[in-house]
């Protein structure tokens, strides 16, 4: 029987890159199962010949049919779902009941020391059930600059985050996708946790300088106080829960806790991680006006 791989979060940053890598590694499209909320919309974004299935973490009735014939799962917690006990644990329970060879979970760098994060709770739950797992624990995504911060860079020529002079290690989601695909195809990755980082850490002054150089216009880093950041994001219509998560993440960065580098990407991919400048070059059109 062919191995079937279920990919949650398939239309997001890491899911999409994982699927591209699975195809590049020769996995048949029929065996790649994007579990998505809207199949038609997903087909517009991804390869249309994949074996799509309807799936929603908030609708338990979509779980069991998806899991029947699955060997491997990539589990991505959608950022909007923080109540993991209600929405993620029931899916893990169903997957456990159905049985599988490997559950790859997209976690977070430093998660082992941060019991308050949803990722910590998910990792602990997967281990408690004894499911064969691989945890991917990446640093900040470079793609935050082409998603969350896209509008402010493009329209306001600025980056507005309360990170002070704190430095952050960034990784390209292309590298994470390549690793997610290869740990599902190669042997030897069961019950392993991998801390994935990019080449080096940057503060936002450097980030703004690099963007200014490549875009040929001045991008300024504003380092607001937490209160100013909160008020502005609230005014822009961000949900309070999201603002609090952002403040938490950038406060960690402010105190220099988000800059650790590992050599795991080199070890797993046999090449250096994508550099920040390569990422900027590859994405220039997104910030162009
Ligand atoms: N950003 C960072 O710097 C960073 C760093 C480390 C770890 N992480 C972690 O990475 C994860 C996010 O990964 P990502 O950036 O690849 O995702 P993403 O781009 O934010 O995409 C979220 C995905 O989840 C899907 N989704 C949303 N609600 C859903 C639901 N109710 N049921 C099923 N699917 C649903 C979305 O599908 P639709 O197309 O239907 O909306 C989309 O495919 C988070 O857990 C985050 O904490 C992020």
Measured as a percent range, the helix fraction is 40-55%
Radius of gyration: 19 Å
Largest sheet: 7 strands, parallel
CATH topology of the largest domain: Rossmann fold
The number of domains: 2
Give the overall silhouette: globular
Kindly provide the name of the CATH class of the largest domain.
Answer: Alpha Beta
So what's the oligomer here? Answer: single chain
Give an account of the 3D structure.
With 289 residues, the chain is α/β, with parallel strands linked by helices. It has two domains: 5-138, 3-Layer(aba) Sandwich (Rossmann fold); 139-171 and 197-260 and 270-289, UDP-galactose 4-epimerase, domain 1. The chain is built from 13 helices and twelve strands. The chain has helices at residues 13-24, 39-45, 64-67, 84-87, 89-98, 118-129, 150-156, 173-185, 204-215, 226-235, 240-254, 264-269, 276-287, and strands spanning 5-7, 32-36, 53-54, 72-75, 102-106, 133-138, 140-141, 158-160, 168-171, 192-196, 201-202, 220-222. The strands form three sheets. The protein has a seven-stranded parallel beta sheet, with helices on both faces. Helix 2 (39-45) links the parallel strand 2 and strand 3 (53-54). The longest helix has 15 residues, at 240-254. The radius of gyration is 19 Å and the shape is globular. The N and C termini lie far apart (50 Å). The structure holds NADP nicotinamide-adenine-dinucleotide phosphate.
